[in-house]
Amino acid sequence: MGGWIEHESNLSQEGDAWVSDNAQVFGNAHVYGNSQIYGDAQVYDLAQVYGDAQVCGYARIYGNVRIYDLAQVSDNAQVFGNAHVYGNSQIYGDAQVYDLAQVYGDVQVYDYAHVHGVVWVCGYDHIFR
Q1: How many CA atoms lie within 13 A of 38 on its CB side?
Q2: How far apart are the C-alpha atoms of 54 and 26, rounded to whole Å?
Q3: Containing structural domain, residue 3
């Protein structure tokens, strides 16, 4: 079963992008490429999820956020503000990435970690609290 989409423009009709389970995409958010939104995840405001990215669990993606490439955001994680998460990065647990932060490469941000401000986290880092 498909999830909830507020407007037809929230989900691209090109590629294999999908919203399923109890997931919701609304506002001016856009999901495209081969990305997947599932579980109870929410993507809204001006957020964009594309490439082969996945957002799942109870994750919240909002603001002017970009999640792309093979990035994954799951569990209770939140990405908001003007943050970008891409590459093979994983944001999970109760972690938050926000403001102008960029997380990319093979970075894992988890537990209760917060990555924020004007910061770039890249490489093979593990950020946790």
Answers
A1: 12
A2: 17
A3: 1-129
CATH of the domain at 27: 2.160.10.10
- Decide: pTM greater than 0.90: yes
pLDDT tens profile 67-83: 999 999 999 999 999 99
Residues near 16 by beta carbon (within 8 Å), at least 6 away in sequence: 33, 34
C-alpha 12/C-alpha 56 separation (Å) is 18
Could you count the other beta carbons within 10 Å of the beta carbon of residue 126?
12
**103 DSSP 8-state letter:** E
Q: How many domains does the chain have?
A: 1
9 vs 72: CA distance, rounded Å: 22
E strand residue ranges, 1-129: 4-5, 18-19, 24-25, 30-31, 36-37, 42-43, 48-49, 54-55, 60-61, 66-67, 72-73, 78-79, 84-85, 90-91, 96-97, 102-103, 108-109, 114-115, 120-121, 126-127
